Amino acid sequence: MIETWQHELRNAAQPEKIKIFTSFFKTGKGEYGEGDIFIGLTVPFNRAIARHYSNAPLETIGLMLKHEIHEFRLSGFLALVERFKKCKSAEERKSITEFYVSHGTNANNWDLVDQSAPYILGAYLVDNPDSTLLDNLSRSDNLWLQRIAIVSTLMLIRHNRFADTLRIAKRYMTHPHPLIHKATGWMLRETGKRDEATLLHFLDTYAGSLPRTALRYAIERLSPEKRRYYMDIPQKNR
User: Fold this and answer.
1) Alpha-carbon dihedral 70, 76, 77, 78, rounded to 10 degrees
2) pLDDT digit string, tens, across residues 139-194
């Protein structure tokens, strides 16, 4: 089965896009995606193929998640998302979520996290709140597990539950990596879309402590006057 899956992915690839992808996903020496390998497959084609393999044995999906080719790993995560959507029991959802978390370090670029974390871990947490799990991920030494922690809260935000997002955002105020700054700002912006008052209350207290990139992302949908106000707040320890 895995050979057929990979063959379909290769056949749908557009090699002329490889150069674009390797630049976009920062695969150069010293960059966060250093050494990653691409075949030039776009997400819509990948998702369409992955959907047909959502019922593949978890062992097979696991092999895809560990593959050196970026789009193969993404296909594994997309198949797992589809599998989670089709779960018929709480036990099955728990099992898929645990499998996902155990393979979280293989989501080793921002798109792999963003295409999977909200729709597996995030969706699971809607019905099974577990702040300890999110805290453990956010305190991990692994950048991708840290991003999974904050991006997973997107589904909680969509259910008007902001506490986990805000708690992790505070923890990440001193984080050194731009990918975490962007993800944090994104989730704060999503919070503001649901409840602007909650976002403004957070910014009134912490705008001066947020990394500049996180702040810019967070205030993107505010009025020009409010954006200027928060950007003019002196930055602490920056």
Assistant:
1) 100
2) 999 999 999 999 999 999 999 999 999 999 999 999 999 999 999 999 999 999 99
Buried-state track 213-237, b at ≥16 Cβ within 10 A, e below 16: ebbbbbbeebeeebbebbeeeeeee
The structure's pTM equals 0.95
Tokens of 26: 């920062």
Q: Phi first, then psi: what are they for 69, rounded to 5°?
A: -85, 125
Residues of the chain within CATH 1.25.10.90 domain(s) are 117-238
Alpha carbons 37 and 9: distance in angstroms, whole number: 14
Number of Cβ within a 10 Å radius of residue 46: 22
Structure tokens at 67: 């593959």
How far is residue 50's CA from residue 118's CA, in Å, rounded to a whole number?
A: 18
200 alpha carbon, distance to own chain's centre = 24
What is the CATH T-level fold of the domain 117-238, as seen in this structure?
Answer: Leucine-rich Repeat Variant (1.25.10)
Distance CA 84, CA 91 (A): 11
Q: 144: number of CA atoms within 13 Å, CB side? A: 20
Buried b (16+ CB within 10 A) or exposed e, 58-87: eebbbbbbebebbbbbbbbbbbbbbbbeeb
CB atoms within 10 A of CB 26: 15
Cβ burial, residue 149 (10 Å; 0-12/13-18/19+): buried
Could you tell me how many residues make up the chain?
238
Q: Single out the residue of 222, 212, 213 nearest to residue 191, CA to CA.
A: 222
